[in-house]
Design brief:
Largest sheet: 6 strands, antiparallel, barrel
Shape: globular
Low-confidence stretches: 1-7
CATH topology of the largest domain: Rossmann fold
Number of helices: 7
Number of domains: 3
Radius of gyration: 22 Å
Strand order of the largest sheet: 12-15-14-13-16-17
CATH class of the largest domain: Alpha Beta
CATH superfamily of the largest domain: HUPs
Distance between the termini: 34 Å
Helix content: 10-25%
Mean pLDDT: 93
Strand content: 25-35%
Length: 374
Amino acid sequence: MSGIHDGDGMKVVVGISGGVDSAVAALTLKRQGHAVSGLFMKNWEDDDDGDYCSTRQDLIDAAAVCDIIGIDLEVVNFSREYKERVFADFLREYEAGRTPNPDILCNSEIKFRCFLEHAMALGAERIATGHYAQVRAWENDGRREFQLLKAEDGTKDQSYFLYRLTQTQLAKTLFPLGGLYKREVRRIAAAAGLPVAGKKDSTGICFIGERPFREFLMRYLPTHPGEIRSLDDGRLLGEHQGLMYHTVGQRKGLGIGGIRARQDDTGEHDAWYVAGKDIAANVLLVVQGHDHPALLKERLTALDLNWIAGRTPRTHWVYSAKPRYRAPDMPCEIDAADGERAEIVFAQPQWALAPGQSVVLYESRVCLGGGIIA
């Protein structure tokens, strides 16, 4: 179930990132008898020679991997497309006070659109990546459909980041690692002598890397200081440098840790958390205590929807959903939906739902799609 095999010997272009996952994806397909070539995507140029972006080393590793596997490697620069389709949206969302997930947009716009179109122009029959997910073809009312499934390794499953893919994209995509556990992937790489077998997994997106997030954002968005106020009583607690630097549920970096909930409070006090933003007034609203009611929501509105099957799932049916990548699957139902929005109700309150993040729905192991939290 890790891929769709309509026959051996397909021409497959694999996205080679310089990491162990894409390396083993390419090796697996080569061993299956496919005509494999590699493609390294250069998606960021602003400071790719700096300490925080590993593009140069990743390319060296990608070339070494392809040399050992015995496949060609092409380097393609998608930096312009990335800046126009992903990074510009990233800045717009933060400027509007929301918390976007650019990795999701990068997958739908760059890795499975620009990369796919480039590979098809080269005569490829499929593309492949090192994502931990699976594709399944099945017949539905006489029509062939493609489902996106969770990976076998639940701790590495990346279907959340792929929920914006379409039938056309899934029909042309292979995920060779979908049935493998991460430990197996590293073992395969080591046995094959691949130099990336023990390479640390990348975290975050290249244009931020491991650098302080606020420092990066200040380069592109000017500071806009405003007040920090208690949501409960409106009391002025401090000053923020910009709403874009904060997200719902944030605890650290507020600079108000020593302030008590009430001026006459002399006992123990809990930490402060971001509970919301008054965009018009440029005010950051905070509450005290992890379990404050303002941080718990039973329902949300999702916009900018993408349903992988091309149709809206039925309402008042039990599904599960992830309102953020690392969240456990939570029982929910769609209360109402049309082509523009969906109202999703959870079986129990969810903590710190952040506008701009994605909520992704599942039916058992099948990823149905999702949308952006309003």
